[in-house]
Known about the structure:
Blueprint: E1 7-8, H1 22-31, E2 36-37, H2 48-58, E3 61-62, E4 65-72, E5 75-82, H3 89-99, H4 102-115, H5 121-128, H6 137-146, H7 153-159, H8 176-185, E6 189-192, H9 202-214, E7 219-224, H10 229-242, E8 245-249, H11 287-292
Parallel strand pairs: 1-2, 2-3, 6-7, 7-8
Antiparallel strand pairs: 4-5, 5-6
Bound molecules: adenosine monophosphate and manganese (II) ion (3 copies).
Amino acid sequence: MNVTTNADLHCHSVISDGTLTPEELAQRAKSQGVDLWALTDHDELGGQARAAAAAATLGLDYLTGVEISVSFLDQTVHIVGLGFEADNAALRQGLIQTRGGRAQRAHDMAEDLARVGIKGTFEGALKYAGNHDLISRTHFARFLVETGVCKDTYEVFRKYLTEGKPGYVAHRWATLRQAVTWIRDAGGMAVVAHPARYKFSANEEFALFTEFKGLGGQGVEVVTGSHSAAESVTYADVALEFGLAASRGSDFHSPEESRTNLGELPALPAQLTPIWSLLQDRIQRAPQALAHS
Ligand code: AMP
Ligand code: MN
Ligand code: MN
Ligand code: MN
């Protein structure tokens, strides 16, 4: 397994803010030619057993996955965990704690939207949340599209729900240290998700990668559905500068909303170390794949 492996190590199911079930995602990954897959729901492991079982049935190699919400320098940073033990108690407890404030935050978001005349959004968003423990901004975005406030979810995040816009509520998530430690102590590897999406200054970004590396973080998403080709080049350089392995993932949420389909991504630049080359003993190999390797 090398940079030519069609690895897609970032996507979401109905267990967080995706619209497909773990089984539907596995099927889609398989038909899209993905060789190695990970389901990385936000702050939740509820889909892991289903995803792994569906992958095994379809002959798809699988890594456990999660995307943990972290607060760092007053911004939200996402840390993807890969190849951990999904039954690790400290990781599970940490995720329960991380997602704990979401219901109150959702009420506060709805109240803020009501102030600009957009009513009923808590109930509206809840309708879209497959998992009521994990009500997210994406569910609000779907309701705002349904009711014609915006034409698509991209417009929602331009006009609402982000810093300085109606419906935005600051929230304290896990610390970087907690997220990396939970993942590592459960036997997995931590990866900085979609780094180009953050609005850090050069110094702040340097601080993020320095602290992440110091805590034992191992990877950075270089090729993701959130990066342009130029951004992938930028973060390939960051991977080399910090001695981090590189990851690749679509961040697929929904056939209707996502611009990047599962597995439909450029290959990692050849000079990088793919994170999956370091996770060989953590891959849950599908029976057919084993027979051919
Ligand atoms: P939450 O975890 O509730 O803060 O919701 C964050 C989710 O909103 C992300 O995981 C994305 O699925 C979705 N999202 C889409 N576009 C944006 C954007 N521009 N900014 C933040 N979140 C976005
Ligand atoms: Mn999401
Ligand atoms: Mn993310
Ligand atoms: Mn994601």
